[in-house]
Amino acid sequence: MKKILTTPIRNEDIEQLSAGDIVFLDGYLVTCRDMGHRRLIDLGRKLPVELDGMAILHAGPIVAKDGEGWKMISIGPTTSMRMEVHEKEFIRQTGVKLIIGKGGMGPETVAGCAEYKAVHAVFPGGCAVLAASEVEKIERVEWLDLGMPEALWVSRVKNFGPLIISIDTKGNNLFEMNKARFNEKKVPIVEEISKQVRFIK
Asked: Which of 20, 94, 169, 187 is 20 to 30 A away from residue 176, measured at CA?
């Protein structure tokens, strides 16, 4: 059955999710990446967007003027690991429930997701235009002084995904689990190949 998260997201909505599950998002999605995290955590500035129960996307979107409003052209995820140093505190301060990005995140984010009940999910790379097609409307933009990629774009989305849960509320990290599984399979294969291969000197 297709799993859909709808903002505002409650703890009970995500506590049942496990790393590896695939979900979609309905409701509000806010782009927030490096500078947004730094302004909140390092500079102590209040975010101009309420994120309690909401979803953020580590992304640098391409947006175009559309009459009096804006139109999303492209909204691909950016590397989440850059936010690792701030994410646990970001989750604590904002109450954000769904963090979407690219690639895995580290132990601090895992701890933050478990302690404050949040999940991290990855959106497939190379699908930025598809993601933009799932944006129904850009409601507003904040901190545009940071430039288009770093501004906080508040969008209403429908069926945004697929989103693969990479960190769940139980402390599981899909990337670390897959790495361990890969290494377990790799050792006997490398040993077998080493028996067969002779290096030419």
From this structure: 94
